[in-house]
Amino acid sequence: MSSKQAILGRIREALAHPSHPEVRALAGNGERDVRKARPFMPPGGDNIEERLRNFARLAELLKVELVQVPTPEAARETLKILREAEGWTRIATHHHDLTDRLVTGLHPDLLWTDTSPGIDALESCEVGISVCEALIAQTGSILVTGKGCGGRALSVLPPHHVVLATRDQLLPDLFAGYEHLRHTYGDTLPSFISFITGASRTGDIERILVLGAHGPKRLTVVLMGTEDSA
Amino acid sequence: MTMTTPLSKFKTDTAESTVDIDHRLWMQAALHGYEDKRGGVESTFGDFEEAKKTAAAIKWEAIEDLGALLESFSDNLEARGAKVCWASNGKEAVDYILKVCRDHGAKKVIKSKCMTTEEIHLNPALQADGMEVVESDLGEFIVQLREEEPFHFVFPAMHLKRDKISAIFEEKLGTEPSSDPEELTMIARRLMRRKYCEADIGISGANFGVADTGMISITENEGNARLTTSLPNVHIAVMGIEKVIPKLEDLSVLLPLLGTAGAGQWMTAYNSMIGGPRQPGEVDGPEEFHVVLVDNHRTRLLADPEQRDALRCIRCGACLNVCPIFKNIGGHSYGTTYQGPIGSVITPHLRGLQSYKHLSYSSSLCGACTETCPVKIDLHHHLLRNRRDAVKEKGGRMERFAFRQFARMMSRPNLYRGSEGLMRLGAKLWRPLEGKKADPLKAWTTTRTLPSPAPKSFHRQWREQRGDRS
User: Fold this and answer.
1) Are B143 and B150 in contact (CB under 8 A)?
2) pTM attached to this predicted model
3) I need a labelling partner for A71 at 20 to 30 A (CA). Which of A146, B196, B300, B326 fits?
């Protein structure tokens, strides 16, 4: 008998005895449908303004640099300012309408992850510029996938991660984030999905917050769009 | 020569840790900060109590439908090119992982935090096979260098102050001493960067296994798990069978609860879902992805209709953070992979009731653990159930005799009054021996003072002051 059969057999045997009613009752009467449980969770915001307010408030708490700009042209200016301030010598990015438009020509040394350039090449970049699948107002998170946002490593290996996003990408909560992924990818979900909530951090030494434990030390979100564009 | 048993080790370790006042104050300050932070985050929930109930209901469904969910989890993973190993015990899991490593001629292994691998003693097995194994989580890395066990399964190095960390880095890595937590963190960051890039195999745990999409979900703050699961060519994830949940969307409740209960964060920095190796059209990710499903006596706990709800645990560590016993004896005293109340509940099931029954008594039964648990496990009552089961299985004759005599005395007023006098006399005769070698109550009096019995009992004072009106 294989271990799989053995384990499944033990599970069947164990569950032949129903759970003790007293223990079951202690926690068994909650709302099971996570869609209906959304009001129990922290608020996301019913409209774009509320969502933006929530996202901005959390971004500040999480030490995420949120730069709001009206147009893609202004976003490009923001990238130029960052480039000069940090003295980027090599920029990693990936092909997407937004990045093609805003990152092309930003620096002579651009590394496109679409061609799988390898770990060492990516490690030598000071910044990774990517798009995101969505922004989550409820938690201040950035939703990325390996498929839509330049791979698994682009958003975690370079010490500075810059996210290009538009206001219409602001979703209320995590539930909406998952819904969005199902809608975008159907049955072929990417092999990597991540909610990024702030820069890499640790409190392992005396519970003192240090940014940039292993992943990016800086996280910047460049959010494009004016009030009437969303 | 005396043999070391879990109980004797517990007694010596706690005797040491409980008199270390500095350490106790340090722990209490650290965990107080956690409680403050958590309270602030909880208050932003629409209804935190109801959110907990939803989390509990999700995990109940998972446990009561465990077989079918595991099968669909495994089928969906395999459909996306992952390899799934079902391991009845630690040895089967370790053997499988060793085989994968050998097949790839692996020399270097990078790991992100995974308590299940501590439970099955994976690192020593890999090292004995000639592999270098590096723990990439900062706290785990520090305790690995110090060759000690994690102190807390969420904050492994919370017992160490910066001078100790600086000292071990200086000794093992040859770095300059530093008293700056940021600088110390950067030492580890620089070293670990090389390790991720050079590693042949990355080994991670999993906080959840999503059945309907065939994905594992990993919650972390540092980014080390993301690097461990993205850069090496092979990724092996090790998870207990109880980690499976029905649907991807269930995470929209579970992830915030885990972050809130575990560390007072709305969400930890990275919550990543991994379903398979690199897929067609993706630019990176491992070529191979293995998931090792570990039973290792979890089905024994599942077979207990009263206590199977302990399998709903999401390992947030909240019950440790609020436990007055944990705060005072510290994580190492437990001598278990999982410390604190949840460890005291499940370890007797995983490793044997008689060897670990003493943990059921290392509790004040205050119920703070049950109160704080985000999936509403009946923790402190389970400690009582373990006590009951341990006695039922193998009760002490002396204990039973003592309690029978006590019951007799308490139910007979004359006997009770008589014993009062005897006690006062006994106390008078005993007092000169207090603290001396011949003190029969030495076990008690070394750390406590025994008050003298009141000269007059309450009964007697009542009679004298109010007259005998009863």
Assistant:
1) yes
2) 0.92
3) A146
